[in-house]
Design goal:
58% helix; mainly alpha; two-stranded antiparallel sheet; 343 residues; 5 strands; single chain
Length: 343
């Protein structure tokens, strides 16, 4: 029998993988050279390797790594706190600084952000009282009064948070522990607010400086030249308040004088002393203190024995607004008097 040639043998060996080669590169079907055959065998190797790298080994590998993967997930679960079964840990002195820092945050929010609204509401009320007659402005001023009280209530709640945190801070600094901090914190804030809500309107607001200035500013605009009564006269008495007859001596009957004690003229660009509270025209007081020594000079207001310096004076924009309003109302009143017909 004739012996098959070597080229046929090579074709015979190549035949089983011809289908695979066609899938990978159909252009190799016409290759008759030995080198092409060898090349095709070499190109089959990556295909076989690719076949070995199917997902089955990966799945098997994943299965073998399953317990490890499970332990990894278990480690992640360990980082999650079960709030329902995890009790508050007692705080000690190490956490005292953190509580103090949170208390300072409450104070910053309360003073720098919230309290600025007091001045805004007061300005709105004074403007309403200035442009409207006393009877007409009553309803609008009552609404503004309600807003002012709500702001003061919020301020009190913020103050309760601040006080509670400071109390816990002092407790920890004394070396004591605080157990169940969240529960203790919420209960203390609630206790303070419940105690505050039981107070009457006078007890809540009559001693509150922003509210006192709010009420006095309205009265001053509505009744220019009249003595400002005690705050209790501006806040109705309620059940639980001390009888007006039993009240201690209150400071009242104060009349706002818009004249400078130096020039005896209406205040211009007023500046107010932080020592005694008296106000002066800016140019006049600067000239008065020009040759003053380190210890300053006596306050030029009659009856005041305080010594003042320029460093203790601040421009008073709020007073400047009231001076302008009073001057405008006085001009309006004068024009109305001149327009009256005398029969």
């Amino acid at each position: 029998m004739p012996v098959p040639s070597s080229s046929r043998q090579r074709r015979g060996r190549r035949a089983p993988s011809s289908d695979h080669i066609e899938e990978d590169d159909p252009s190799q079907r016409n290759g008759d050279d030995v080198d092409d055959g060898m090349g095709s065998e070499e190109e089959q190797q990556p295909v076989r390797k690719t076949a070995r790298k199917e997902k089955k080994p990966k799945i098997a590998r994943n299965n073998t790594e399953g317990p490890q993967g499970g332990s990894s997930n278990h480690d992640e679960d360990d980082d999650i706190i079960d709030i329902q079964n995890f009790h508050d840990q007692p705080l000690d002195r190490k956490e005292a600084a953190k509580l103090h820092g949170i208390a300072q945050d409450w104070e910053m929010i309360r003073k720098q952000i919230h309290q600025n609204s007091f001045s805004l509401v007061k300005d709105v009320a004074i403007s309403l009282a200035d442009v409207m007659e006393a009877g007409q402005a009553e309803e609008a001023l009552d609404e503004v009064d309600t807003i002012m009280k709500e702001l003061l209530d919020i301020d009190q709640e913020m103050l309760s948070h601040e006080k509670t945190l400071n109390t816990f801070h002092q407790t920890l600094m004394c070396g004591e522990h605080v157990d169940d901090i969240i529960d203790a914190y919420e209960k203390e804030v609630k206790r303070q607010m419940d105690e505050y809500q039981k107070k009457t309107t006078r007890q809540k607001y009559a001693s509150n400086d922003p509210y006192v200035k709010f009420k006095q500013g309205i009265f001053e605009v509505q009744y220019p030249g009249a003595a400002i009564p005690p705050i209790n006269d501006l806040v109705p008495r309620e059940d639980g308040d001390v009888s007006d007859d039993d009240d201690e001596l209150e400071i009242g009957g104060v009349t706002q004088d818009y004249r400078c004690p130096i020039t005896l003229m209406i205040l211009e660009n007023p500046m107010t002393s932080q020592v005694c509270g008296h106000s002066y025209s800016g140019a006049a007081i600067q000239d008065y203190l020009k040759k003053a020594g380190v210890n300053g000079k006596p306050c030029p207001t009659s009856g005041c024995n305080k010594r003042i310096t320029m460093d203790q004076l601040q421009p008073d924009k709020d007073l400047e607004k009231r001076v302008k309003m009073a001057a405008r109302r006085q001009r309006t009143s004068s024009e109305d008097s001149d327009g009256e017909v005398i029969e």
